[in-house]
Amino acid sequence: MMSDKRDKKRLAVIGHPVTHSRSPAMQNAALAELGLAGEWTYEAIDVAPDEFERRVRAMVGEGFAGANVTVPHKGAALILADKLSETVREIGAANTLSFANGEIYADNTDAKGLLRALPASPQGERVLVLGAGGAARAVVWALLGEGAHVEVWNRTELRSRNLCEKLGGTPVTAPDGPSYRLIVNATSVGLRGEDPFGELPLSADGFSGGQTVVDLVYGAGTSQLLAAAEIAGAAVVDGIEVLVRQGALSLEIWTGREPPLDVMRAAAREP
Ligand code: NAP
User: 17 preceded by cis ω (within 30°)?
Assistant: First the structure.
């Protein structure tokens, strides 16, 4: 007998807006590669903030096994969950929900996803994180957990000070870009075509071969930030690689299967 939608295990990414998300293409390609496409589906659901809680609670009874949560719902996801992982509790944001026995369980794969995307361990390294929003919190928490020396710059200084008070790390107002082994852009600068060297305390000729530069923001093609870093010979990691790594960890939580990273990368990068 053919299975209908009620027999399927549904997954989704919930955001606002969400149409630009690469997650459905990436996760459906992974499900197909694992031979799960007949049983599992992954869709994008656009939900405004005031509808978020009602929509997620309804999903529990609609055959959903879980969901990724993206901007602007990562804080709300933590508040409505019945159970939180230790990571979520410490970071204060959730990006992965699982629904079982009528309960909502919240996890955060952004932190571990960032670490998996790095070419080398940041242990003992001086690191600069730009930003103090949800993504920056996960990044700072992950890097501190690995034993990195983390400094945090944010446009609104009070937010970087608050972040460091809660998680650790040192707030900085005038970072010296060339002195860091690793620089992570966890702001949304670049998302709408902003000039990173106008908005962030970095200069286009301030990178070097010994550095790694990560830009969480992704769009079509290489970001301006990573293009400049690459010219200087720095190792670069783009937002798609981080997306793939966090998505792979979410898929593993839901299905218990080992995610096919290369298939996910190819699907996430398809124009
Ligand atoms: P958020 O909570 O809204 O935080 C936005 C951050 O960007 C704040 O620190 C904000 O500074 C800063 N910012 C915004 N405009 C700026 C400007 N013109 N100049 C300087 N700083 C500016 O967002 P989020 O959830 O942390 O996400 C940040 C970015 O990471 C988003 O673009 C998101 O798509 C991306 N992201 C990617 C992945 C991935 O897997 N690749 C995962 C998570 C997030 P203020 O505090 O001063 O406003």
Answer: yes
Q: Is the dihedral of CA 45, 37, 78, 183 positive or negative?
A: negative
Q: Determine the atom of ligand 1 nearest the C-alpha atom of 247.
A: 40
**Helices marked H in 118-206 — which ranges?**
134-145, 157-167, 196-199
**Measuring from atom 16 of ligand 1, which residue has the nearest CA?**
189
Read off the pLDDT of residues 50-85 as tens digits, 9 standing for 90 and up: 999 999 999 999 999 999 999 899 889 999 999 999
CB 128 within 8 A of CB 177: yes
What is the torsional sign of CA 148, 105, 260, 19?
Answer: negative
Ligand 1 centre distance from Cα of residue 43 (Å): 24
The β-bridge partners of 150 are 127
- β-pair partners for 237: 214
Q: What predicted TM-score, i.e. pTM, was given to this entire model?
A: 0.95
Residues marked as catalytic: 74
Q: Helices (H), strands (E): how many in the chain?
A: 11, 12
Residue type at 201 in one-letter notation: P
